[in-house]
Amino acid sequence: MYILRYTFIAPVPQSLYNKTCYARVFAAGTVHEMFTRQWLPRLMLFFGLCLTVLFYCEYLIYYVVLLQCRWPMLDKSSSETTQPLRVIFLADPHLLGHRTGHWFDKLRREWQMYRTFQTAMTLFKPEMVFFLGDLFDEGQWAENTEFKQYVNRFHELFYHPKDTVVYAAMGNHDVGFHHLMDEYQLNRFKDHFETSSVRMVRQNDNIFILINSMALEGDGCDLCKQAENEIQNIAKLLKCAKGPKGRKICDQIEKMPYTQPIILQHFPLYRKNDKNCTGPDSASEEEKSVTFQPRWDCLSKNSTHLLLNSLSPRLVLSGHSHNFCEVRHPVHNVHKAVTDTQTLEWTLASFSWRNNKNPSFVLGAISNGDFKLNKCLMPRELTVIWTYIISAVTLLLWLFYPMSKAFTRWRRRGVKDS
């Protein structure tokens, strides 16, 4: 009896040899030889290329995109002798909870924000970072234990060096809208992020004022009265720093160098809509025509005038709408007449793919007498998806097309020989 063997010790009968072309190929050891010499290296290269695509889409692409962004340069004519303060501003990360977020959606969005933030910290090395509210998506509903888990996750995702100072403004998803806020929610957020409804921060002779937008409802509640009083106290402090000297009211107030403050808050200042907003991270044409509802989509007119007239900011940065917008607000004098002065406001797009197809953040170079901003677009989710699709199709064709041709050639040769 003759046995089919990989190495030929005894001859194979012609009838068995010609039974099928696959038996003859196996008998000759061709499959094993072809797999070892050609298909195995090709298969290993295939998996290597797959890992390369994964590495690019989940890590390297963040460097490729963010390297296109630069710190803005202040005018050389400026009399400032110190280096400008370098600050990153971002809004609405909306870390998902278990109520409204699917686990994969949560994993994907958080990885995207983690990689963007850590890449930005590596490339730009800011001195300060400001979050403009809505750090969490379900903070207003979270129980105490869940909120602590939220906070721990926030610090893990947005880890930063010890010499980088980080501040966060309150958002409606963190503590609730005005009618849903209570003292417990406010104090919980204040304790974890060391902030308050109105807080002034000074850094390198620059003044930043963080404001709880939901405390500017203007309905006479205790929280609103407290916030308005704090705003007026800061306004007095700024007036005394500005001069003129010798005012009795300023004798007992801490002296400090004056500079126009920068307001940081969650709600935008009052505007009708986003009709005049432009940019890839701005609202869609359909959304731009939607009228804003004061105290819900933006501050009221009265609260806007209170901030602009009392604090005279040189810049206002906000979030909430999830879409970018640049607005210049007219400033009124004490007689409520419009002056020639305008205050610039940038409403930042959301930092998350979930809320904006073109998420972004802002780099700011700020000195005592000048500032400039650069907007940095983040990798687009659609770009990542299409990179995966095109790479998968290309690699599969590259892997299987030569193999299919080889099998077809062997079958034809076997039929011809038989």
Structural class: alpha/beta
* Total helical elements: 11
Mean pLDDT across all amino acids:
86
Shape: elongated
Largest sheet: 6 strands, mixed
Helix proportion range:
40-55%
Approximate strand percentage: 15-25%
**Distance between the first and last residues' Cα:** 22 Å
Major sheet strand order: 4-5-6-7-9-8
How many individual β-strands?
11
**SSE arrangement, N to C:** HHHEHEHEHHEEHEHHEEEEEH
The unreliable regions are 1-10, 16-28
Provide the gyration radius in Å.
Answer: 31 Å
Report on the structure:
This protein has 418 residues and is an alpha/beta fold. It has eleven helices and eleven strands. The protein has a six-stranded mixed β-sheet, with helices on one face. Strands 3-2-1-10-11 form a five-stranded mixed β-sheet, with no helix packed on it. It starts with 13 loop residues before the first helix and ends with a helix.
